[in-house]
Amino acid sequence: MVLDYGTHVIISVDAGATLVQVDLSSSYVSDNLSEGSSVKAQTGLNFFDKLKFDISSQNTQQSSSLQAYQSNIQYSLIQSHGGGIPFYPGITLQKWQESTRNNLVAIDRSGFPLHYFINTNTFPDLPQPTVGKVAIAVSQAVERYFKVN
Q1: Nearest to 70 by CA among 95, 37, 48, 99
Q2: I want to staple 28 with a disulfide (CB 3.0 to 4.6 A). Which of 8, 37, 44, 72 is the partner?
C-alpha cells in the first residue's frame, strides 16, 4: 500500500536550487566534538572560501581554526541540486546562480501523514470503529516502511 500511495499527503513544495558541500574528516570532528559550534563555523567559512566569498576575519584564532579544519579535510565535494549547469570546479557562483532561474527543483516540502486523512469525515459511510482500525493499520504500515527503508 505504501509503495502505491506513499506515506504523506504533500500540501506545499518549495522550489529553488541548493549547493551542498561535504567534507570528510572524521578525526578532526571527533577530536573537536565538544566544540560543535566551532566546527560548524569553520565548515561554513571553508564553504564560503571555496566559493570565493570575501569574508575577512579579524580574529586570528578563527583564522587558525579554519586552517586547522582545512588541513584535516581528507575529501571534499560540492554538489548542486537544480540549475541548468552543474556546479563544477572553476565555475563562478554568479554563473551557476544565473542558470537556476528556469531550472528549479523541489528543495523542501511539507505535508501530513496519510493516516490523518482516514477519519469519519472522509469516510462517512463506514462505521467509526472500522475507520479507526484502517487508520491504525495505515499508520503501522508507514512505520514499518520507514523501519525497513
Answers
A1: 48
A2: 72
